[in-house]
Write a structure and sequence with these properties.
about 260 residues, 2 domains
């Protein structure tokens, strides 16, 4: 009498293989959906960047302003800077997009009051470390009315690993509108729920150096999708080979 593979041996392994196979297929399918979402995002943002600037959304439109509908939209606005209210975001500029400055320094984010009376935080651009303080760059402290063109931006991701802002020395890493607004002592009711990245520098000196926004999106979802599906195929092949061997294994005498 031959000893057939025992049910307790085959079925637990088969169940484990099935669960692992379904997990791999689910991960591949999720990456497929992410791929479609990312391609749509890239196409949408590219279309927004190609369009002419529109008026920056004011308070009557803020309830409808969202990351999905407005990220990287090109906008224009007029008003005045308040250079007494600046935020300095540490930034290492390795590849300037249109200017000449590069290296470690700061992005200068300044309160801007529009002609309509509401405020928005504006990322004026990059300055080197030696020009962090406004007193070191008086030529950048424009006082006359400004016409700005820039891109709408929203809060950057923040996790428990994100370093908190050094409010004592005014050094920031992660930009979030609510935190910056509170630091600058701006009204929540009259301050835009987004900030604006300028598309170019201002004044004769061109400083701070604007136009440094990198509009790029990593898109490795196709690679990840193929990897998960390939692992599912490999798992199925290994399981099938093991199952055939188990069912057709050499006969053994019962003891």
């Amino acid at each position: 009498m031959t000893n057939q593979p025992k049910v307790p041996r085959i079925w637990p392994l088969s169940l484990a293989a099935l669960i692992a196979f379904l997990c791999l297929i689910s991960l591949g399918t999720w990456q497929w959906k992410r791929l479609a979402w990312k391609e749509n995002l890239i196409a949408t943002v590219s279309e927004r960047l190609d369009k002419p600037a529109i008026a920056a959304p004011g308070p009557d439109l803020w309830d409808n302003v969202s990351r999905q509908g407005h990220l990287y939209k090109k906008v224009e606005l007029r008003g005045h800077y308040d250079h007494s209210k600046e935020i300095h975001v540490w930034f290492a500029l390795n590849k300037p997009q249109g200017g000449k400055l590069y290296g470690p320094g700061y992005l200068i984010l300044t309160k801007f009051t529009t002609l309509q009376g509401w405020d928005v935080i504006v990322n004026r651009g990059f300055v080197p470390e030696a020009m962090k303080q406004p007193s070191s760059r008086p030529m950048t402290l424009t006082k006359d009315e400004q016409y700005l063109t820039g891109l709408i931006r929203f809060d950057e991701p923040k996790t428990w690993l994100s370093p908190p802002a050094d409010t004592q020395n005014n050094v920031w890493i992660v930009r979030q509108v609510a935190e910056m607004r509170q630091y600058l002592d701006l009204s929540a009711h009259s301050t835009a729920p987004y900030w604006i990245d300028l598309t170019k520098g201002q004044g004769e000196a061109g400083l701070p150096q604007g136009g440094e926004t990198l509009v790029t999106f990593s898109n490795n979802h196709l690679q990840y999708m193929l990897t998960w599906y390939a692992l599912a195929v490999v798992l199925f092949g290994v399981y099938l080979a093991w199952l055939i061997k188990a069912l057709r294994g050499p006969s053994r005498k019962l003891s």
